[in-house]
Design a protein that fits this description.
The protein is an alpha/beta fold and about 1200 residues long. Among the domains are: about 5-140 and about 285-375, Rossmann fold, CATH 3.40.50.11180; about 150-235, Penicillin-binding protein 1b domain (Penicillin-binding protein 1b fold); about 380-485, 3-Layer(aba) Sandwich (Rossmann fold); about 815-965, P-loop containing nucleotide triphosphate hydrolases (Rossmann fold, 3-Layer(aba) Sandwich), CATH 3.40.50.300; about 1070-1175, Alpha-Beta Complex (Aspartate Aminotransferase, domain 1), CATH 3.90.1150.50. The protein is built from 38 helices and 44 strands. A hairpin with an 8-residue loop joins strand 8 (about 190-195) and strand 9.
Amino acid sequence: MKHPLLAPLAPLLHRRGPPHPVLGNLPGAALSWMAVELSCHATGPVVVITGTTTRAESLYREMLFFADHRSPPLTLLPLPAWETLPFERLSPYGPIMGERIRALFRLTQTAGSGPVTAGDAEGHALTTLITTPAALMRRTVPHQYLATHGLSVSKGDQLNIAALRHFLSSAGYRNATQVEEPGEYAIRGGIVDFFPPGHDDPVRLELFGDEVETLRLFDPVTQRSTDRIQSVQALPVSEVILTEETIRDFRSGFRQTHGIGASEDELYKQLSRGEKSPGMEQYLPFFYQSAETVFDYLPPETLFLLDTDALAEARRFDDEVRERRANLETESQPDPHRPPPPLELYLPEEEFHQQLNRFSVFATAPQAAPGGISMGFDPAPNFLNLTAREPDEPPIPPLDLASDAIRQAHAQGFKVCIAAASMGQRERLRELLEDHKIPTATVSFWHELFAVAPGSTTFLAVGDLESGFIHGRMGLVLLTDSAIFGIKTKRRKTDPRYLDQLLAGFADLKELDPVVHADHGVGRYGGLHSLEVGGIKNDFLLIHYAGSDKLYAPVENLDRVTKYVGGDEVPLDKLGGVKWEKTKEKAKKKILEMAEELVRLQAVRQANQGFGFSTPDPLLQEFAAGFPFEETPDQTAAIEAVLEDMAKSRPMDRLVCGDVGFGKTEVALRAAFRAVMDGKQVAVLSPTTILTQQHFETFARRLAAYPITVEILSRFRTPAEQKKAVEMIAHGGVDIVVGTHRLLQKDVVFKDLGLLVVDEEQRFGVVHKERIKQMRATVDILTLTATPIPRTLHLAMSGLRDISIIATPPINRLAIRTFVLQYDRQKVREAVLREIYRGGQVFFVHNHVQDIDKMAVELTELVPEARIGVAHGQMREGRLEKIMLSFYRQEFNLLLCTTIIENGVDIPTANTIIIHRADRFGLAQLHQLRGRVGRSKHRAYAYLFIPHPQTLSEDALRRLEAIESMGELGAGFTLATHDMEIRGAGNILGEEQSGQIREVGFDLYNQMLKEAVDNLTAGNGHTPATAKPEVEEFSPVINLHISTHIPEDYVPDVRQRLTLYKRIATLETADDIREMRAELTDRFGHLPESTSHLLRVMGLKQACRRIKILKIDAGPKGATLQFHATPNVNPEGIIALLQGSNGTIRLNHETQVLGIKDRAWEDANTRIDELQAILKRL
């Protein structure tokens, strides 16, 4: 033990058995520091056992900070528990299984054979496991079996593609068209994509013959390669590896335990056929001759560190296993789940202790431990808890307290380091400390600190620590930004361009779905068809119109075709009829009228005089640092836009859109803080009592450290309380008041109102909306809405309405686990108990008011442990609000309700939703309902119960499959929100415009709106009333009599092909074409000639759009070019072209046709090259 602090532990390292020596005085991040230092000096692996998954995740993040850049490198391996109830017939969550497999496989890696040993000074790998008793007390795959079932692939290896397919399939990977989730694979020619468990990114492997030519990581969202790698380890997806041998053992063990009649069990039948089955991992002992424990993977020199609550958690988990088993055996009906005997799957507590006693073990404690060894650490202060003084004195800002403490520590000769959760937070902290006259320097990693001398500089590092420590002997104070500003949670990043691409694409287009062709009207999609015309094969999109009319649209003109989104009634057009042209003209007229009105309102607002608030200062910076999440780019942009609007002398009127939990309230808080600091009052208006209560609690909590008074006005305050609040508002004794429409009543008079925040304005009545409209002229207004609006509409309306969109979801460290199950009382009981046992709440959606009371009786009998409340839309408003508020306050833990919970309800402790008869809901509605859970750190569950699958329509099954597999950020997420967005568009544009959307479809409506806005704001010499588009949007038709398609053997999946065609048809620049060429080569391999031609034709099409050429028809001998009535040509260029052609190029001025003859364009590429050269001269 080279580290002086560890020297007293050396004699104890070879002790075995109880009592375990206790290491005391390890508060905050000191335990993580200790674990890393021991790992770097131990002769075997170190295993840290803590009580809960949340604590294990926290320790892992802290240890990453201390382990960074250590030599030799230290590998930290989380080993999580399954997160399913004991004996529950559900499979563990894929990423959790992936982390387990990765950790277990790592432990099998050896220099010779047998379990791994950790490193020494010669540079062997050092390994530390972070885990919980629940993870260690479950038996697992034998280590020798796992060691032989991984596949290592390196660049240059010989690899047969059929053998690789067999390995991936037997290792549990699922064949998919596109790899987006761990445990999926896809093979396209010589390109293999797969997503190994435990990896952050999937892998793309390119073969040349049987040789591995390249290995690349790729982004599962954009599908583009990111980094090259030299090798990869493909591991099994599950701890149950299905081979002929393991399936045979399972069948035998299952029948022996449950009798011959058990062979009728659906799970037994599926596994016998070699198919994966939900919950098969619960039968793990049947698959192997002898299942092992994690302890069997560890060498004798392994060292264990026990967190304070580790042994108590082992006892609790053992009790849970016994209780679950006893409950299953005493249920009135025989247990249909047929689990294995408990001792075969779980270690009892006694055996857990026996296994532990084979190794060296240190218990730990945050404070001094009687009879233990003191490690000499003291807790670091939490400045958030020290702000309060005497009741009548204002609180001291936490940053002031921290600054004083830092100066004091420097004066005493301590080095001070502050760990910030992100680089952005570190930068913000640096600016704030500089404002407090504290010099700072950054350190890249923990170990750099020991190379610098103490002084008056405070060192800033990036590390995710919950709390720090002080150590006198080391002369070190480690603080965290969370002790000054509160804990921050990281958010997930999404590329908004990808979301736009999805919405505009055809990823979810099914046969007979309605589509709109801009020239021919609304029809139904009839599939993608390959047709041979004049001996040349190309792909066409078939559209069925009214009667039996059919249109085959060439794929290069798919920019004219969009999905019809606009209502349930689809108005099919007749091909060649005049109705469509009339519909378009009417829509254009209405859109222009609306755009003109918006332009007029904008001009009026510009002329009004308002209050110009001050620009951001250090105090606002400090307040911003207390936001408990890392801002998403969308959110930062919204905050900046609002503060910029407020600084202007005209009144602000900005709309911020984003789903519940996406961070709109924080935008309002920053604006409110700015207003109050400038001496103005703020009113926050909400449509319901529960939303008002939530806003009040959020505002009060965030502003607690500042001398700001926050009050609430709603029907849940007594008349006397309301009267007092109204008086204080009038005298300026209230800075911020949060309330329902009670705020709009005549008796509420503000002393000096500067900002009105309106939440969900569309949910207020006409009278209230009128009152808000009057206020718009004089005060700054910030409107928030959870109904999403599409980015495309946002872009089309830019310049007419100030809108900010927050489209990036907050992090869901644990995505919502979704199960589609046949209705089963036992499963309902398990789902409810799982949630209420962990202190959470359940939504049970039963969308049939007529028998909701009957369902309440059934649930009371089924789960007597639950406290049940009932809520539906036919209740009186006051009664409904009381029930919702009681649920919010956790007075009962199961809310039986209709879809009234669909919008706006944010209950962080509700993490399970059960939807009864899920087959009766649309995809967007299911997605919206599911989004009510999963707003906290806990894993959220969604159970979609249906009758027998055979009784459901194919469409219903497809919807349910989509929601079950839909990742929070996958294609499905965006597409499911699309019809929600149409509702949002209606809210913003008004009812009349919703009618136009239904007539022409949303995408075409958007195009028309954009054209109208461009013409009104371009100042093209027209007054708004007479503004006319300079040119009708058109798509040049190019017929080169060559093959321009994506062959089926290049992209076999028809939906992928269709999506690519749609994207290619809408490419706008030469750079877009280059990007697309690179993407296709990356994802599918070398471009076939016909696909290369297609991309080159898009280049011609872009040039035609610029010059205004309607059509090109070209063959081996020449071509004709048909110009628009008002072409955009260069006169000198066309004259030079005609004069230098020896009469082979002629222009017919009457028909506007350019004729080219006497050419030798037999070769397709020559034809394209020559046409490009001619277009360039024009």
